Amino acid sequence: MGTADWLRSLCLICLMAGCAACGASGQFQAGRQALLANDPERALAYFLEAAQGDPEYVYRSMLFSEGIWTYVGRTQYATGRLQEARQSLERALALDKDDNLAKLYLGLTVARSGDFSRGLKNIESGMRGLYDWLEYINRSRPFEGYWDPSREIRNAIDNDLAAISGGDYSREQIIPDGEWVGQMMENEIDRARRDERRQFERDFERRRGLSVGVGIGF
């Protein structure tokens, strides 16, 4: 194969890879919108297509990241496919051991599958990881408090962790609480993005006002 043919082949491979990644992103976004609309069956179909197109796809927004297999596992969990959910969430953690939502939902899946004590360990680990991440983001960026500004998520997690630590909890309390934390973290991604955009617009208008004032002699 000549140099020109080799370059054409390389360009074709890159183009195909780019198209696959773009397709996975589009399928993922459609799935996430369905998930936020509380339609996990439709979301699952989109997420599975995204995972097939790019098995290592990671959604990143507002400093938060979550792998495609976490989304697949979460929607499998929501639709009662517990065995499949466990496999997907274990795969998510094999790709990223620090995926705290994967830990949380793996714990919920195992707990609902009948092994509550084992599931509780992952629920606790996932909640603690999410709490620590929220604390770190707010502590390291004190002037950009877009994440959990009212501490609603952190306070709820803190209460659950205290109950687990003290042994004062029940299956009927912890599982719904874990599901609530997972949903709130997903909602928080969009809320934090909206708050950041609004702050940017306010800062822009303020700077523009100062520029106009200086320009006309004030």
Q: What can you see in these coordinates?
A:
By secondary structure, the chain is mainly alpha-helical. The chain has one domain: Serine Threonine Protein Phosphatase 5, Tetratricopeptide repeat, CATH 1.25.40. It has helices at 3-36, 40-53, 68-78, 82-95, 100-112, 116-140, 152-166, 171-215; strands at 58-61, 64-67. A two-stranded antiparallel ribbon has the order 1-2. α1 (3-36) runs antiparallel to α2 (40-53), α3 packs antiparallel against α4 (82-95) and α6 (116-140) packs parallel to α8 (171-215).
Give the topology, please.
Elements: H1 3-36, H2 40-53, E1 58-61, E2 64-67, H3 68-78, H4 82-95, H5 100-112, H6 116-140, H7 152-166, H8 171-215
Antiparallel strand pairs: 1-2
Helix pairs in contact: 1-2, 2-3, 3-4, 3-5, 4-5, 5-6, 5-8, 6-7, 6-8, 7-8
Keywords, please?
about 220 residues; mainly alpha; Serine Threonine Protein Phosphatase 5, Tetratricopeptide repeat; two-stranded antiparallel ribbon; 2 strands; about 80% helix; about 5% strand; globular; disordered N terminus
Number of strands: 2
Distance between the termini: 70 Å
CATH topology name, in short, is: Serine Threonine Protein Phosphatase 5, Tetratricopeptide repeat
CATH architecture: Alpha Horseshoe
The main pleated sheet reads as: 2 strands, antiparallel
Shape, per Cα inertia axes? globular
Taken as a percent bin, the fraction of beta residues is under 5%
Top CATH class: Mainly Alpha
- Rg over C-alpha atoms, rounded to the nearest angstrom: 22 Å
Q: Could you tell me the mean pLDDT?
A: 87
Question: Element order, helices and strands?
Answer: HHEEHHHHHH
User: If helices are DSSP runs of H or I spanning 4 or more residues, what is the number of helices?
Assistant: 8
Strand order of the largest sheet: 1-2
What is the percent of helical residues?
A: over 70%
Structural class: mainly alpha
Assigned CATH superfamily:
Tetratricopeptide repeat domain
Number of domains: 1
Give the low-pLDDT segments.
Answer: 3-19
